[in-house]
Amino acid sequence: VLAKLYVRRANFRLALGDYATASSEAQQGLAMMSDERERAFALRTLGNSAHVMGRREASEEYFRESIATFRKLAGPVGLALALIGFSDMLSAFAEFEKGKEVAKEALALSRRTGRAESVSLALRSALEQTNLTELAILSTCNRTELYCAHTTSVIEDDVLNWRVAELQVHRLQYRTPAPE
Question: Among 10, 72, 61, 80, which Cα is nearest to 37's?
Fold first, then answer.
C-alpha cells in the first residue's frame, strides 16, 4: 500500500510541477513494488517525470519498460497512456516520425478501450505531431466530426488521414489562417 501511495503522490506532484520530488517519490515506490501492473504505472510516472526534466534517455528507458510490461499484462488502458507519454516525449525531442507512429497506436488503442480521457490525451498528442493549432472532436452515437485549425495554408493530409480513418470521421472541417 505504501508503494502505491508513493507513486500516486508522485503523479500529483508531477501535475503540480514539482518534478524532482515526483521523480524521487516514484523511485521510492518502484523500489517497493512487487505487482507488475503497479510497476508499469510507476515506470510510466518516471518516464513522464524524466521527460519534463529534459532527461530524454532516462525517459525513453522508463517508457519502453512500462510499455513492454503493459503489453505483457494485456493492460490496454495503461498501455495507451504509456504510449501517449512516449509519443509526447519523442515529439518534444524532435523525433516527429517516431512520435507520429506511437501516437497513431495510442489513439487506436484509446478508441478500443472506450475511455474518453485516453482518446482526449491521444488527440492532444496527435495535435503536437502536426502544424495544427486546434483539434476538436464532436461525437454522437452515429456520427463523428473533426474540426481543425492550423498555422499554415498547407494541410498535412498524410498526417491527418490516419486520424480520420481511426476516428471514422464523417465530416472534416479546416479553418485556415486569414491572409496577411
Answer: 72
